[in-house]
């Protein structure tokens, strides 16, 4: 099952992993850094967000290949262009 990036913050809240939208959005941003390859695993914050994301089946320390081998999809929805 694919997880849409836009659904991640609400999933984190619904499962009780985080209690605020701000915390959920911050954790979701780590998925963007993961996809860009800019995760610095030596930072303590990475451990916090990784633990949260692993609870919904995403591990940001595994290489992101973007080929569908991970259950995450990034969608673009640009209107008017």
Structure report:
The structure is a single chain. This protein is mainly alpha-helical. The chain has one domain (3-60). The protein has helices spanning 8-14, 21-36, 44-54; strands at 3-4, 72-73. The model has no long low-confidence stretch (mean pLDDT 84).
Which terms would index this structure?
81 residues, 3 helices, globular, 5% strand, mainly alpha
Short structural summary:
This protein has helices spanning 8-14, 21-36, 44-54; strands at residues 3-4, 72-73.
Write the layout of secondary structure elements.
Blueprint: E1 3-4, H1 8-14, H2 21-36, H3 44-54, E2 72-73
Parallel strand pairs: 1-2
Looking at the structure, what is the overall shape? globular
Structural class: mainly alpha
Strand content: under 5%
Output the strand order for the largest sheet. Answer: 1-2
Low-confidence stretches: none
Tell me how many strands there are.
2
Distance separating the two termini: 30 Å
Oligomerization status of the protein chains:
single chain
């Amino acid at each position: 099952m694919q997880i849409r990036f836009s659904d991640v913050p609400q999933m984190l809240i619904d499962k009780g992993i985080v209690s605020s939208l701000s915390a959920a959005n911050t954790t979701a941003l780590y998925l963007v850094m993961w996809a860009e390859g800019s995760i610095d695993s030596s930072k303590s914050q990475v451990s916090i967000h990784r633990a949260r994301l692993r609870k919904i089946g995403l591990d940001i320390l595994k290489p992101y290949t973007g080929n569908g081998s991970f259950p995450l999809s990034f969608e673009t929805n640009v209107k008017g262009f």
